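Exercise 3.2. Students should predict the tertiary structure of the chain below and write it as C-alpha cells, then compare their answer with the key that follows.

Predict this chain's 3D structure.
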Amino acid sequence: MEKDPSERRREQVDSVRALRREFITTRDAAIVYDMERHRVIELADAAGALYRVSQNLVLIKKDVLDVYLERFHVHMNELRKGKEDS
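Answer key:
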C-alpha cells in the first residue's frame, strides 16, 4: 500500500528539519557560537566539521564542532586558579 502524498510530504519536511539541525551555515554558526565568522570556519575546519556544498555554500556539522569545542571547556575554578598563579 502506497502512502498518501500528505504523509510523504510530512516525512520529507521532518527529514529536512533534522538535516537543518545537523548542519548549519557559517553565518548561523557565528551567531550560535558568538564568534566571528572566519574564526568559526577555522575551528570547524580543525574539527573536520566543514562541508563545502557548492562554491558559495559551506555548511558546518554542528555535533562534530560541539564535540571539538568541548575539548576547550574550562571551569571557573580553573580560571581563578590560573590567575592566582600568575
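Discussion points: Residues 5-22 form the longest helix (18 residues). The first strand starts at residue 23 and ends at 25.
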